[in-house]
Design brief:
The complex is a heterodimer of chains A (115) and B (112).
Chain A lengths: L3 E3 L3 E4 L5 E7 L5 E8 L3 E8 L6 E2 L6 E7 L2 E6 L8 E8 L10 E2 L3 E5 L1
Parallel strand pairs in A: 2-11
Antiparallel strand pairs in A: 1-3, 3-8, 4-5, 4-9, 5-6, 7-8, 9-10, 9-11
Chain B lengths: L4 E3 L2 E5 L4 E6 L5 E9 L6 E6 L5 E4 L2 E6 L4 E6 L8 E9 L6 E2 L3 E6 L1
Parallel strand pairs in B: 2-11
Antiparallel strand pairs in B: 1-3, 3-8, 4-5, 4-9, 6-7, 7-8, 9-10, 9-11
Classes of the chains: A mainly beta (115), B mainly beta (112).
């Protein structure tokens, strides 16, 4: 069974901490994505990567950075966590857009609370 | 329309009833439309990927239609069951794009 695995289901961090959210996929997908989901706002794209060491900003990249050193792993970094980053974070992976008929595969999410 | 929009935001359905809801998206530079089902405490799961105007897709009791010229898609649930309770998300991808833009979702609650 193919999978996207996020390292933590629930996380509580303090304001100002550096936070790492890890995502690993076992499908050899080129594309990986980080979204956050807030009530009434749907899924909003933070960053995505279409290859190792490549990254592109999504719609709301401020306060975040990413790292993709290996094809299977895509990390989201909160440089200095703030309370407005309390949210559900979802990682996803996919084949390139030219093969997008297969949809995205999502992880189960990390619910981050910043106190 | 500038963004992907879904309506209604939520709806309650009696078990056995059929229902449908809407996804609207910008029709320019359209490449594909995705539908996902997201059950509580689970991962969003891909239901349909639709690319052609007039496309109709079906998976069990759930089906979807697509109108790319006017920029909308309908998702239908026939004979709703409690296990259909979930948030249904649609998202579009533009030609030469590499990412999905999601709507806010329609939260469906099927009451026994």
């Amino acid at each position: 069974d193919v999978k996207v695995t996020q390292s933590s289901r629930y996380l509580v961090k303090r304001t100002g901490e550096k936070v790492f959210l890890e995502c690993v996929q076992d499908m050899d997908h080129e594309n990986m994505f980080w979204y956050r989901q807030d009530p009434g706002l749907g899924l909003r794209l933070i960053y995505f990567s279409y290859d190792v060491k490549m990254k592109e900003k999504g719609d709301i990249p401020e306060g975040y950075s990413v790292s993709r050193e290996k094809k299977e792993r895509f990390s989201l970094i909160l440089e200095s966590a703030s309370t407005n980053q309390t949210s559900m974070y979802l990682c996803a992976s996919s084949l390139p857009w030219t093969a997008s008929n297969y949809g995205y595969t999502f992880g189960s999410g990390t619910r981050l609370t910043v106190v | 329309i500038l963004n992907v929009e879904q309506s209604p935001q939520s709806l309650h359905v009696q078990e056995g009833d059929s229902t449908n809801f809407t996804c609207s998206f910008p029709s320019s530079n359209f490449y594909a439309l995705h539908w996902y089902r997201w059950e509580t405490a689970k991962s969003p799961e891909a239901l349909f990927v639709m690319t052609l105007n007039g496309d109709e897709k079906k998976k069990g009791r759930i089906s979807a239609t697509l109108n790319t010229k006017e920029g909308y898609s309908y998702l239908y649930i026939k004979g709703s069951q409690p296990e259909d309770s979930a948030t249904y998300l649609c998202a579009d991808i533009k030609a030469a794009g590499n990412k999905l833009t999601f709507g806010g979702g329609t939260r469906v609650l099927v009451k026994p």
